[in-house]
Amino acid sequence: MNKKLVAALSGGAALVLALTGCSGDDDGNKKLDDWAKKVCDQMQPQVKKIQDANHSIAGVQTEEDSKKVQQTDSAAFQANADAYKALGKAVEDAGAPPVKDGETSQKNAVKALNDLSAAYSGLKKRMDGLDTGDKAKFAEGLKAIGGDIGKLSSRSDEALKKLQSGDVGQAMNRQPGCKKDAGAPSTSKV
Predict the structure, then answer these.
(1) Rounded Cα–Cα distance for residues 143 and 127 (Å)
(2) Those residues with Cβ within 8 angstroms of residue 180's Cβ, 6 or more apart along the chain or in another chain
(3) In angstroms, rounded to a whole number, what is the distance separating the alpha carbons of residues 98 and 132?
């Protein structure tokens, strides 16, 4: 019953990983590299928190004890809320990237990350409110939550793609904190 939830979560994780996997060449200006360093230095620990939270959800997808599923998912949603809030703060604190429409891209990305944080806080509250004594109602609640996760990950995708496009994406790719960890398990197959 928890597989749909895990599948939906992988979309949100892919969104964050997309931020960390920009490609580009080594040309770039110092101001943009400095901006990217400010963001990327804060990014990797938050991405790891999101990955860990999503892996904990995957770890209980075959769990029969509704209470254990509820506790695990609730903790994971809180971890995701905290991580997305920290990512939003990192982008906000870095200021606007020194590129055309940088301020708009930054504001949109911060809003998208903060919206994700708030949405995961809301999901945690909903998860905490599910009736673990009635397996059918619990399964129905999980299904509804899974559907909402899918919607919120696609909603924020556009602003984040815009932030990581062009020169900004290239500058982020040059930063160690924004490089994809080759040893990290892929969440897209969870």
Answers:
(1) 11
(2) 17, 20, 21
(3) 50
Chain centroid to CA 159: 13
Q: Which two tokens stand for residue 181?
A: 């960890």
161: Cβ–Cβ under 8 A, 6 or more apart, which residues? Answer: 18
Name the token pair of 2. 């928890």
φ and ψ of 171, to 5 deg:
-65, -40
- In the chain, domain spans: 3-178
Q: CA 134, CA 123: separation in Å to the nearest integer? A: 19
CA distances from 51 to 48, 97, 173 (A): 5, 26, 20
Measured CA to CA, the distance from residue 179 to residue 117 in angstroms comes to 23
Beta strands in 8-162 (DSSP E): none
Pick the CATH number of 3-178 from 1.25.40, 3.30.70, 2.60.40, 1.20.120: 1.20.120
Structure tokens at 148: 């909402």
Identify which of 65, 61, 44 has the alpha carbon closest to the alpha carbon of residue 190.
61
* Residue 36, amino acid: A
pLDDT tens per residue across span 142-184: 888 888 877 776 765 665 676 677 888 888 888 887 765 533 4
pLDDT value of residue 189: 33
